[in-house]
Amino acid sequence: MNVEHILSEKGRQVVTIGPEASLMDAGRMLSEKRIGAVVVADPGNPVLGILSERDIVRAVATNGVAALDQPVSRYMTAKVVTCTTRSAINDLMETMTRGKFRHVPIVEDGRLIGIVSIGDVVKFRVAEIESESRALRDYIATA
Ligand code: AMP
Prior knowledge:
- The protein is built from five helices and five strands; from the N terminus they run H-E-H-E-E-H-H-E-E-H.
- The protein is an alpha+beta fold.
- A hairpin with a 2-residue loop joins strand 4 and strand 5 (111-117).
- It starts with a helix and ends with a helix.
- The structure holds adenosine monophosphate.
């Protein structure tokens, strides 16, 4: 199974923010949208970086509340690991586990077309396991 399966379920909407926005703006956005990370983008680059709730916590722990007035570009991760709709979900799980991050933007032909979170992956795997066990039970019952 590949990322397309998740994307067709959850849709292609991605929340983005500009690099000059403040950390406070980013925090408000995460809270309002009930998400854990935003992709940092500008008109010339759809994935300049990624900023997650962990980056905000780390910024405030290191620099105090003054960090909240500083630009997102200062605290984002600039080297973003991305995937495509053809990426295997098992590989993506391994990438997230190894890299210790929970969000992976989906990029194709230089365009940002979606984002997968660890929550999306877990939801997909649980549904897959449930359907496998249902099929096995049906098979045993009719054998
Ligand atoms: P997360 O677990 O996604 O909240 O992110 C944990 C840390 O990894 C934060 O410093 C993020 O900026 C960073 N991060 C999140 N997603 C990615 C990604 N796809 N590629 C690289 N770094 C990431």
